[in-house]
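My current task is to audit a protein record that another person submitted. I need someone to confirm that the C-alpha cell line plausibly describes how this chain folds. Take the sequence as given and treat only the C-alpha cells as open to question. This is what I was given:
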Amino acid sequence: MLDRFVRVALGVTLGLLIAFVAQPYILAFLYSANAPRSVAARGDLSAAEKTTVDLFASASPSVVHVFAQAAAQGRALMEPDDEFGQGEQQQGSGTQTGTGFVWDAAGHVVTNNHVVEAATKGGGSISVRLASGEVIGARVVGTAPSYDLAVLQLGRVAKMPPPLAVGTSADLKVGQSAFAIGNPFGLDHTLTTGVISALQRRLPTQEGRELSGVIQTDAAINPGNSGGPLLDSAGRLIGVNTAIFSPSGASAGIGFAVPVDVVNRVVPDLIKNGRVRNPGIGIIAGQEATAARLGIDGVVVLRVLPGSPAAQAGLRGVDPRTGTIGDVIVGANGRPVHRLSDLTAAVEEAGLDRPVSLLVERDGRVRTVRVNTADVAQTRL
C-alpha cells in the first residue's frame, strides 16, 4: 500500500515538473501573436489634451529656427550638424542656434539678442528655418541688449507664416498653465508644458542692467529654446524664453522669460528705429556692493551727466576731489529703492518724457525731487 502511494506521488511530482518546464513552449505555441494585432479603440482625447494639441497646431507654424553664423567659414559645411548636439552653441563652427517667432505680416521675427549677437558683431550671417522646412536669409533690424531682445527681417518667403497672437503679462497668475515651443538641442518644434512658477523675478542682462518682472516657469527650457515663445492656454504670447537656471546646463525646472508687455513695448521701437529708447534720468550709479559695505540702503549717485534730467533737477554725485557722497536715491514713485534695479523698474514703468518722483537723501535729510525721464541714448545712460 505504501509503495503504491509513493509511486503515485512520484508520478504526480514528475507530471507537475514536466508541465512547469513545458509551460513557456505551450504558451508560445498556443498564443503567439504572429500577425498584426487589432487596434484597441481609444475614445476621445480629454479636454485638456485637445486644448494642448490645438494650441500647438495653431502656434507652431509661427515658430522658427534661427542660425547665426559669426563669420563666413566654408569649413563649417564639413562639420556635423547640431541636430542632436549643443543646441544654442554649436562647438567649433561659430554658429549659434536658437528660436524665434513671427511678429507681424511683414516678416519680422523676434528672438533673443544673445542668439544673434555673434553674427551682428562679427559681420556674420543669419538664416532662419521655417516650420515648412524652407530656409530663408535674414538681417538684423535692431537689438536691445538690455532686454535680451532682437528683431530680424526675413528675406523673400514663399508663404509668410502667421504672426503669433499677443497676450499680456500684467494679469498672469502663479499656477496657470504655460507652454514653450522651441528647438532645444536642435530638435525642431518641440513643445514643453508646465506652469508659471513665479513672477516678478529679476534677471541680469547686458550693459550692467537687471530686467525686472521676469516670468519663471517650470516648462522645460533647454539650450536652443532661447528666443522662443512662452504661451498661455489660449495660445497667446506671454513671454520670450531667455534663460535657464541649471548647474548642469540642462533644464532643472527653472526657466525665465521676458514678459510680453516689455516685448510689446520694445519690439515696435526696434522695428522703427533699430534701437529701443530707454527711459532714464541721466545718472551713473555707484557699485551696489560698495554701498552695502558702507551701510547705505539705496542707489548712490556716482555721477550726474551734464544736460541730463538729473542735472536739471539738481541731483549731485560723489565729489571727485574729496570723495564725499552727494545724493542717495531711496525711493521712486512711492516705492522704496534699495538697489539700481528698483530705480530702473520705476523709471521704465513711468516711460519716456514722464515725471518720476524721487526720494533723495542728502546730508542726512530726505527730500522729494521731481525728474522728467528722457531717452538714455541721448543722456548716454
Notes: Helices lie at 2-31, 47-59, 113-122, 260-273, 288-293, 309-312, 340-350, 376-379.
